[in-house]
Specification:
The protein has 14 helices and 19 strands. The protein has 448 residues and is α/β, with parallel strands linked by helices. The protein has four domains: 6-155, Alpha-D-Glucose-1,6-Bisphosphate, Chain A, domain 3 (3-Layer(aba) Sandwich); 170-258, Alpha-D-Glucose-1,6-Bisphosphate, subunit A, domain 3 (Alpha-D-Glucose-1,6-Bisphosphate, Chain A, domain 3, 3-Layer(aba) Sandwich); 260-365, Alpha-D-Glucose-1,6-Bisphosphate, subunit A, domain 3 (Alpha-D-Glucose-1,6-Bisphosphate, Chain A, domain 3, 3-Layer(aba) Sandwich), CATH 3.40.120.10; 374-447, 2-Layer Sandwich (TATA-Binding Protein). The strands form four sheets. A seven-stranded mixed beta sheet has the order 1-2-6-5-3-4-7, sandwiched between helices. Strand 3, helix 2 and strand 4 form a beta-alpha-beta unit. Helix 8 (261-275) crosses helix 11 (344-358). The longest helix has 19 residues, at 429-447. The radius of gyration is 22 Å and the shape is globular. The two termini are 26 Å apart. The model has no long low-confidence stretch (mean pLDDT 95).
């Protein structure tokens, strides 16, 4: 559900423009603090951030909001989003907050909220917070003696590194592996290279010089070309690319070929199924995952459950239905035995464990199926709602019927940007390209 402030992954927008302004962040702090304030104990929230310039502004505004309603604040500085999910649980906080716009450029930012269990919030809780953001909270502020206190905490990166390493068997060593890791000049720039080095790998880091402006700029999981070039240059065994808040990962094999989340999940699911580690015989993915993955899993006796886009929906379905592996094609991989949200570093380590076990090149381990041809395009809406046009809806239904069992057409409004995504996949590449172009043209006309 997308509300007035919340989208598919928290609150996101252009920095210093609504809803990512200091005054709205202040209200988010007050509102979410009040929603999670239960009982007489001293309440506290842990706040992390990525490396964007605007994260300082949002951090201070959120802090003021939490303090104003009597919530103590623990500030971590730059740390991956999954690190905040982990710290919220392990430090017994009432709430966790990550300031990040994930894979977006530096001039965007966002606010992600986690409950005391380290999971992203439900639609109902987000709606409750939204109602309070727009309410007059003057009568619910803490008294002068009940104001919260704020302090920075040390050792967070070391704590997260140890947590990530403990997801592997103690006996497993990455010695002999040459690994290029691209941290997108983002939140993982310290922890990822260090964790890989401590596990024995020879590490070649990229994207580890953040300056407030260069997050995701020509680096990271959304721009893996630099990673692929570096892998070929240094003859590495694998390349690992995180995004700005390190909750997603894309891998490059030793030949410089890009491996997406679908192939990673296929490799991990196959290995876990053989070892009896899957909680249920299948995985959870979103509607964006390739049909080739579904067919491959069916061929080895595993099922596939689809959810709406967003790792929050994947995690919720995994929790409700008892799966322990799921994720998104984009690289949000959730391993619920270890994490409550997407974790790029932990997912990469689990993939490296499979590579280590099989003793085969990454190009063999991570290319288990041929993806069906897939075309994805975006249409800017200019604030209009072309998907509500009856003729457009009729056209989409007819094209889906035309594809039948040989493909899929997915048309959806983005929850993080003012665009409509049009994706088609199928056995006939020419047909799906034509279908996407037809839908894009119809949406463009309807939005004019």
């Amino acid at each position: 559900m997308a509300g007035k402030y919340f989208g598919t992954d928290g609150i996101r927008g252009r920095a210093n423009r609504p809803p990512i302004t200091a005054d709205i962040a202040l209200k988010v702090g007050m509102a979410s603090g009040l929603v999670f304030k239960h009982g007489e104990h001293r309440h506290r929230v842990v706040i992390g951030k990525d490396t964007r310039l605007s994260s300082y502004m949002i951090e201070n505004a959120l802090t003021a909001g939490f303090l104003a309603v009597g919530i103590d604040v623990l500030l971590t500085g730059p740390v991956p989003t999954p690190g905040i999910a982990m710290l919220t649980r392990s430090m017994r906080c009432d709430l966790g907050v990550m300031i990040s716009a994930s894979h977006n450029p530096y001039d965007d930012n966002g606010i992600k909220l986690f409950g005391p269990d380290g999971a992203k919030l439900s639609d109902e809780t987000e709606a409750e917070i939204e109602a309070l953001i727009d309410a007059d909270l003057g009568g619910r502020l803490a008294g002068p003696a009940q104001l919260g206190r704020a302090r920075r905490i040390d050792g967070v990166t070391d704590r997260y590194i140890e947590y990530a390493k403990r997801t592997l068997p103690r006996s497993l060593s990455l010695e002999g592996l040459r690994v290029v890791v691209d941290c997108a000049n983002g939140a993982g720039y310290r922890v990822a290279p260090e964790a890989l080095w401590e596990l024995g790998a020879e590490v070649f880091p990229l994207g580890v010089d953040p300056d407030g402006f260069n997050i995701n700029r020509d680096v990271g999981s959304t721009a893996p070309e630099a990673l692929a070039a570096k892998v070929r240059e240094v003859r590495a065994d694998i390349g690992i690319a995180l995004d700005g808040d390190a909750d997603r990962v894309v891998v490059v094999d030793e030949r410089g070929r890009i491996i997406d989340g679908d192939q990673m999940m296929a490799a991990i699911a196959t290995s876990w199924a053989e070892e009896g580690l899957l909680a249920k015989p299948g995985i959870v993915v979103t509607v964006m995952s390739n049909l080739g993955l579904e067919r491959y899993l069916a061929g080895i006796g595993l099922g596939l459950v689809r959810t709406p886009v967003g790792d929050r929906h994947v995690a919720e379905t995994m929790r409700l239905e008892g799966y322990n592996l799921g994720g998104e094609q984009s690289g949000h991989i959730i391993l619920s035995d270890y994490t409550t949200t997407g974790d790029g570093l932990v997912a990469a380590l689990q993939l490296l464990a499979v590579v280590h076990k099989l003793g085969r090149p990454v190009s063999e381990v991570c290319h288990l199926f041929e993806p069906l041809p897939q075309v994805l395009k975006s249409v800017r809406t200019g604030g209009r709602r072309p998907l509500e046009n009856g003729e457009v809806r009729k056209m989409i239904d007819e094209l889906n019927a035309r594809l039948g069992a040989n493909g899929r057409l997915l048309v959806r409004a983005s929850g993080t940007e003012p665009v409509i995504r049009v994706m088609a996949e199928g056995d006939d590449s020419k047909m799906i390209a034509e279908i996407v172009d037809d839908v894009v043209a119809a949406l463009t006309d309807a939005a004019a």
